Each structure stands twice: as C-alpha cells, then as structure tokens.
Amino acid sequence: MRRRVGAAASGLLVVFGVVEVCRGLWIPAKAELAQVLVRRAWFAARAAGDDVRPWPWADTWPVARLRIPSLGIDEVVLDGASGAVMAFAPGRLHGTAAPGGSGACVIAGHRDTHFAGLRSIELGCEVRLDDRSGRASRYVVREVAVIDEDELSRLECDGPSCLILLTCWPFDQLAGGGELRFLVRAEREPEVTAPASSCATS
After folding, report:
1. 84 lies in some domain
2. Residue 141 is part of which domain span?
3. Cα–Cα distance between 193 and 81 in angstroms, integer?
4. Residue 199 maps to a domain
C-alpha cells in the first residue's frame, strides 16, 4: 500500500514538474510565435499605409520597428502598452509621441522576452526607429537608470525629440511586476551625423 502511495505521489510530482516547465516556456514561445504574425502585419501596414491587425480579433496594430543593432534587438512595436499587448510585442504608451515625432515616444516591453537584451545597453548605443511611412529615425542613448514606477516626470525629453524604453527591474527577478523600472532615454540625432560609439554586448 505504501509503495502504491509513494508511486502515486512521485507520479503527481512528475506531472506537476512537467506542467510548470511548460508554463514557464509558454510565455517566451508565445512572444516569439506572435512576432511572426506581428511582422507580417507590419509589412502589410507599410504597403497599405493603414492599420493592419496581426490577427482578426486583435485590438492593436504595428506602429513602428525598433532596432538596436549592437544588442541584436529587432522588434515590431504595437500600439498600446497593456499587458495583453506586451505579451506579444513591445508597445507604445498611449498619449506619448508618435514614433519619430516631437516629444517623448515611450515604448515598454517585458524584461524576460522582447526587452531582455536591454540589460547590456550602454551610453552611446545607437537605436533606430522606423515609422509606418518608412521614415527612419536615429537615436543615441544618453541615460540609463532605474526609477520608481511613479516617477512620471522622468518620461520626458531634455531635447525636442527622444525615445524612452521601459521594462521591469531587476532583470533576474522571478516574480513579475514590482515598483522599479529600467529606463533607457535616447535622444534623436540629426539626419547627418557622425556614427554613434560602439557599445558592449556582454
């Protein structure tokens, strides 16, 4: 009898372990698979010049393409930054500037998927942002900081146009959420400028 109970308990532990592993892999897998549909919608929107939803029931659409070459980051950005949106891609916060426009364009993403590479970003890194019309804007990182989630005054520009990237902090925290945010502020550069300094990828 004890052997049967022990075997049953062992079986339940194995099943529980498999379920937890699958749940842990599901979020990154969903983020990667969704990017295929999101990228298709991005190119379709570029061709059509209009909103194109990545799937019929989506309440968001691609608004920009974000690239940080030195870190290997190349992500399509969706409109809005709700949890539902950021499960699939980084999102532009409503009420902030349009990609490449005047003011602060704020883009948020999860630290364990699309914005995981931000842990290696440094001052001087080049950031590129393409809007849906095909206009490419170039930014250079001028600030990297950890802030409180309520420090809304930090989501502003020192100059006429900037790009702010936000994700949760610390990067290696197991539980989601928390009160701290990792902020990257990049200032828009003129159309003709010297190359940005290289930055580490380690």
Report:
1. yes
2. 2-188
3. 32
4. no
